[in-house]
Amino acid sequence: MKSQKDTGERVKQPHNLTRRDFIRKSAGALGLVAVLSSPLIPALNRVKADDKALRAAKATGAASAASTGQKARAWCMVIDLQKCEGCVTIDSPPQCTQSCVAGHFAPKGQKWIEVYEKKLSGGGSFFMPTPCYQCENAPCVNVCPVAATYHNEDGIVLIDHHRCIGCRMCMAACPYHRRFFNWGTPELPPEAAFAEYSPEYPVPAVKGTVIKCMFCAHFLRHGRLPYCVAGCPMKALYMGDLNEDIVTNGTEQVQLSKFLDERNAYRYKEELGTQPRVWYLPGHGEAFGRHPKDARLFHPTTWSWGGEEPKIRPGMWPGEDIIK
Fold it and tell me: Which end of the chain is more exposed for a tag (fewer CB within 10 A), N or C?
């Protein structure tokens, strides 16, 4: 048998293909096969499919509301600081916080609406209730990698705890620090077992997820005021609708735009461009006789299922505790 060399025939070689090129291309092909066979691809496809389903569900919900004749709402809150005196005049913990804790079985240490004592530039202090600010341009919504945080059709920022992966990127993005992480299984009262979870009423709290105030969306849909608004004995908290231009604290109803203009309303950290839906009316509790330099301190929040609030508030990372 004659060889190719004997017959004068030449073996055809690929043009410009060196051994190094051959090895590199072979390795690349094997790597592509490995990636395509990896469980990561189906997982990413499932996330994309879930995102499409979530967007479709939101669109369907909005369309359903329109078809049933429900009004398009744009919920907001107004806090009158002339009336807020931290509940020191009635010698009790802030009742807005207490009502929220009791109504949502909030885990110990979590105050979804928290009252802070802030200093005045001219001396003295005032009390400032801080719920979730329900920002229209919400940083938390913008950074969530799995669309677990989203706006509902009424503009309220909700969390789907069945989608939340506990990455805490939303907590890092929130300039108001109004989100909390459930590091462990929360200690809850027995009656919490009967609660039916939904993003509008995130009870009971889920280990490994982020949780926060949601304006009691489950109440608003049925014409009820949030726990904090209804529970404030001074009627300092108002719930309103930007579309209807009205706001109420449960005892009076006023025109929202006029109310904000006449009282020089402002929004906390408005310069950040988050467009929060919570307005403050300046004051220091003077409507109930509190002086800016009043030395009385507000009482700590209590949990009916045992003990006062912890002396530390859990931070964003393990061991990152904020001393009270």
Answer: N
